[in-house]
DNA sequence: CCTTGACCTTCCCATAATGGGAATCCCCAT
DNA sequence: ATGGGGATTCCCATTATGGGAAGGTCAAGG
């Protein structure tokens, strides 16, 4: 199967499939003409990657998750730790963003938002510690 | 004032100050020897940038906010719109991240997390749509 | 006068993940 | 044989930040 069809079947772009290969997440067989050739098992790998990326796992984590996925003797504890570490990172970033959003929303609530120039948002950006 | 002292006074790194200048956020006077020379007003600008960046405004937004800040005839509505658009972006990203975190936490809760290999996290990554 | 150390300058590279695009090659159908 | 659609590789851009090299500058001290 061509990379184009593999892309359609996996939901990834051909560009990204090549990228993941360059990053060592999979290795595609090559035909005599140099074209990559994908089997069903490869599609499963590509879909796995897509799902992991949809959950924002960094490629480094995806690499480890794939290794565990392929390893029948893995310990589920290892998978769980990767996932929970990632959850913690996601939540930390999300909380940081919401704190910024709250702060800005608060400032915006006190801003007239009309033609007048005075603006607590600019005041705050000017004065903060 | 040297870039080193400007860095100390503004809380930015010298590297970033040069970068912001390259990005057109400010223009520093030069001494005869080529060194950048900063006045008090420049420090205020640099601190403004730092505060805006601390709220995760992208440099493009910082550029616009600075322009409004310098414009005494600005309309506070313009500032407010930039801020609220940014708030919306922050909240959207934060919500997306928390949705992923919730989803993963849920999966992790059903994972034994011991030496056994079976793991709903991997199952889900394998099976998702 | 010369050295040393602490600055400063510019330029290149790297990060993470993705996409755009060029130049070139391949295959199949007309 | 020719054209269209795909494939290949390689380079570049994105965002914000930092590392580091090579070289210029300045002030203090021997």
Automatic annotation (TrEMBL), chains A, B:
UniProt KW keywords: Cytoplasm, DNA-binding, Transcription, Transcription regulation
Residues in HTH merR-type domain copies: 1-68
One Pfam family here: MerR
Organism domain of life: Bacteria
Keyword Cytoplasm in record: yes
GO molecular function: copper ion binding; DNA binding; DNA-binding transcription factor activity
Chief location bin: cytoplasm
GO BP, one annotated term: positive regulation of DNA-templated transcription
InterPro entries: CueR, DNA-bd_dom_put_sf, MerR-type_HTH_dom, MerR_fam, Tscrpt_reg_MerR_DNA-bd
Subcellular localization(s) per the UniProt record: Cytoplasm
Listed GO CC annotations: cytoplasm
Protein name (database record): Cu(I)-responsive transcriptional regulator
Organism, as annotated: Teichococcus aestuarii
